[in-house]
Amino acid sequence: MKDNFISIADLSADEIHETLDLAAEIKAKLKAGEDYKPLRGKTMAMIFAKPSARTRISFETGIKKLGGYALYLSPNDISMGKREAVKDIARVISRFNEAIMARLFSHQHMLELAEYASIPVINGLTDYNHPCQVMGDIFTVKEHRGNLDDLKIVFVGDGNNVVNSWLNLAAKLPMHFVLTGPEGYDPDENTLTNAKDSGISNIEIIHDPVEALKNADVVYTDVWASMGQEDEAAKRAEEFKDYQLNTELMSHSKPSTLVMHCLPAHRGDEITDEVIDGENSIVFDQAENRMHVQNAIMVQLMSGQSD
Ligand code: CP
Ligand code: NVA
Question: Which residues in the chain land under pLDDT 50?
Answer without folding.
Answer: 1, 305-307
